[in-house]
Amino acid sequence: MNKLDTKLQHPGDQITEVIGRIYRAGLTTTSGGNISIIDDQGDIWVTPSAIDKGTLTRKDIVCVKRDGTIKGQHKPSSEYPFHKAIYKARPDIKAVVHAHPPALVSFSIVRQIPDTNIIPQAKHICGPIGYAEYSLPGGAELGDKIAREFKKGFNAVIMENHGTVVGGSDLKDAYVRFETLEFSARTLIGASTVGKPHFLTDAQIAEFDSQIPEDLPEMGEVEHTPEEQSIRRNIATLVRRACDQGLMISSYGNMSVRWQGNDFLITPRNVPRWEMDIQDIVQIRNGMREQDKLPSRSLSLHAEIYRSHPEVNSIILTQAPNIMAFGVSHTKLDVRTIPESWIFLQDIAAVEFGRQFAGDPTIPGIVSINRPAVIVQNDGIIVTGDKLLQTFDRLEVAEFSAKSLVMGHPLGTLVPISNEQIEDLRKKFLS
Ligand SMILES: [Zn+2]
Asked: What is the distance in A from the centroid of ligand 1 to the CA of 272?
């Protein structure tokens, strides 16, 4: 996805960008789903009714003026009334995203609210979640029920037998919330398929929050060699690709690549992952950071892995929904499924939540050539490797393997490749 500038970009362009992303990510059908923005004049910009979500352009976005007159080539979305009701109930909300994404619809049809205490940032981004009982779509009654939930302070609401609606301080904020909520729902469904979800306590989440790293001193002159520039490009490209492939969400995930000695480049904090660009990447040299940039929160873990493992030249930390089904249910992710999975990943270790905190020696001590990936329960997966593309491939293989295990679970029990067959793979591919 392109950058989203919620200050300078026209509301029509913002909406077109985000609806396109939601559609391509499989989070809405072409007929379902609608997005709106309220501007400073009180005019509401909204997706049109019954126009193909796959080919929407800026001209298709409808503007409903404050006085009720409609500007544009189409009719506003039939679900426009509840958008309007939300803005009326909550003047701090400036953008609304509504859709029927499959995992959140699963929750809405079994009439449950997803518990986002599965990973720390999901709780923060989604906040407590409201619940609006079923009403006829497009009617005033549905608008009232939803607005009532927003009035209580919820920024995300499950709509009974319908879908979800989230609000935000701008469209970026709303989109990140929407994406994180659907990710949480998918993870909970996967975790409930292979086991039982484990939830973090509020105290554990508070402990995670207190882990904001002390910032390294800033360097004076920054040297950008062609090698350094090519690392920058690789990281930015693969972070975006990870988002496109469903391996990373906007709000979490980081990558780094060793540059020279123990110096490396790493993704920053607080930049939505889908819009990662070369200038966002942070250089870390001689224990100093590039000026005016804040490296990822897990900087010290990356640094420690590079220090203790000369063979590791790239690291990815992320959450992918099927891997996290195992990470949240505390079930072993056994990759003795197909030859590719075992050759790429061998044995995936799992460590308890908290072991990822700065200064804990557990993860650097576990990573090895024979154990390139480690799951941190209720947090994410750490994948290591030589070239970044190789590490990325490992991550893809891990998510595919996890997905096969989740999908295979209702069919029967995994029959792993035998020890003898593993030895043959080891001899042929790894020695
Ligand atoms: Zn709907």
From this structure: 26
DSSP secondary structure letter of residue 254: E
CA of 141 to the centre of ligand 1 (A): 14
State the distance from the centre of ligand 1 to the C-alpha of 28, rounded, in angstroms: 10
Residues 107-162: tens digit of each pLDDT: 999 999 999 999 999 999 999 999 999 999 999 999 999 999 999 999 999 999 99
Residue 136 corresponds to which amino acid? L
Which amino acid appears at position 76 of this protein? P
The model carries a pTM of 0.94
* 379 vs 353: CA distance, rounded Å: 7
59: left (phi over 0), alpha (psi -120 to 50) or beta: alpha
Cα first-last separation, the chain:
41
Nearest CA among 97, 248, 109, 119 for reference residue 188: 119
Give the distance (Å) from ligand 1 centre to CA of residue 164. 8
**The two three-digit tokens of residue 169, written as one number:** 């301080």
- Give 84 Cα–ligand 1 centroid separation in angstroms: 14
Could you tell me the distance, in angstroms and rounded to a whole number, from the CA of residue 162 to the centre of ligand 1? 6
Beta partners for residue 350, in sequence order: 375
